[in-house]
Amino acid sequence: SAVISQKPSRDICQRGTSLTIQCQVDSQVTMMFWYRQQPGQSLTLIATANQGSEATYESGFVIDKFPISRPNLTFSTLTVSNMSPEDSSIYLCSALGTIANYGYTFGSGTRLTVV
Amino acid sequence: AQKVTQAQTEISVVEKEDVTLDCVYETRDTTYYLFWYKQPPSGELVFLIRRNSFDEQNEISGRYSWNFQKSTSSFNFTITASQVVDSAVYFCALRGANAGGTSYGKLTFGQGTILTVHP
To answer: For A21, which DSSP code?
Structure first.
């Protein structure tokens, strides 16, 4: 299955600022996703990153707060905008492999703390 | 809509005990995939198993085994002779696979079960 490099692995940010998280996959994948895991909680899907077009957001998540880019089949970014302490979470990128390989790969996650 | 329910929020066992983590799912997709992931304190997700909806054969991998029962929409996970290193949060997840379906490709996670194995 694909290997995902996600960075940064962790960051401490001031409220009101923005952080961009990068996700690089080592092979072409059919779909890429971004998840959020709040402290002590499960993973929640933020959006599907669509190659060359606007991301598809899940209920409760909006583009102004979480702009996402996917300029090609192997790279995506998630920006957490105008951060508040409530945005402190682990953010994970994931990728779904080709039809021949239904493998689902996750990045190692970005542990974000907003102070 | 998809839903995954893990009945146990926390489980505490003593080393060498067997432990079963329950997972029940709901989906309207006729084709789907079920997963188990382990999340150690480091935070990364460790893939354990993927099971197709059309394959109900149970699987064993070392001390791990999985019981998939489509009739009861359950996909339970058993650790035999648990070890301290098994302590982690375990997530069951469901991915819809009906082409064109709204759940296609998306993973829905259960709430997670915190497993603590004491020496």
So the answer is: E
